[in-house]
Design brief:
Helix content is 77%, strand content 0%. It is mainly α. The longest helix has 39 residues, at 2-40. The chain is flat.
């Protein structure tokens, strides 16, 4: 019975990882398209080399994950180590790190795409246990806070100079509240789904 439960759990985690891999490919393409349009159409000189490097690394990790899911490479990894909830957590935290790196080079916490990290919070809250979902939420909150202090600023006109500190404070608090609410909401949805 215990062995059967492990197989069911591994199969479920494997399915969640497969979904994550499928979500990553469009995210990589969208990231590249946004970089191209920002530099080409909008004349916003986001540093292309580091962003392309991060996206290329992300694509390589995703390709290796596809191979792991298909059992083709590395064989020992796929055969002897089933996909676990902790591995899924590591993948989601990698997604947080990649998004943070891209945002670092494209304006930091003021980039509107920073809200994309909330999707990772929702994903984690539905696919992993509550404690691990809160770990992802905390990582996203720390990332968001750090991006306000450490980033490559975009060369844009400063039209909000008088209200800048109030604006940052409001965005920061809204982000923290939304991340916490989404993690709690997603965990509840996951618990309700398990009851059915």
């Amino acid at each position: 019975r215990l062995e059967m439960d492990r197989e069911v759990t591994s199969s479920r985690e494997r399915g969640h990882l497969r979904q994550l891999v499928r979500i990553r490919w469009p995210a990589i393409c969208i990231g590249a398209a946004l970089l191209y349009s920002a530099r080409g159409a909008l004349d916003i000189m986001i540093p292309a080399a580091p962003v392309v490097g991060v996206l290329a690394f992300y694509a390589l990790v995703n390709a290796a994950t596809v191979q792991r899911l298909h059992g083709t490479w590395p064989r020992f990894w796929s055969r002897y180590w089933p996909v676990t909830e902790r591995e899924l957590l590591v993948h989601v935290l990698l997604d947080v790190a990649v998004l943070t790196a891209v945002l670092y080079f494209s304006g930091g916490g003021t980039n509107p795409l920073v809200a994309a990290s909330l999707l990772l919070v929702v994903y984690a809250s539905v696919t992993v246990r509550a404690r691990l979902a809160w770990t992802v939420a905390a990582a996203c909150m720390l990332s968001y806070a750090g991006l306000h202090f450490f980033n490559v600023p975009l060369p844009l006109a400063d039209t909000l100079s008088g209200d800048r500190s109030l604006n940052y404070f409001a965005h920061f608090n809204i982000y923290l509240a939304l991340a916490a609410l989404m993690a709690g909401y997603g965990v509840r949805l996951s618990e309700m789904r398990r009851l059915n």
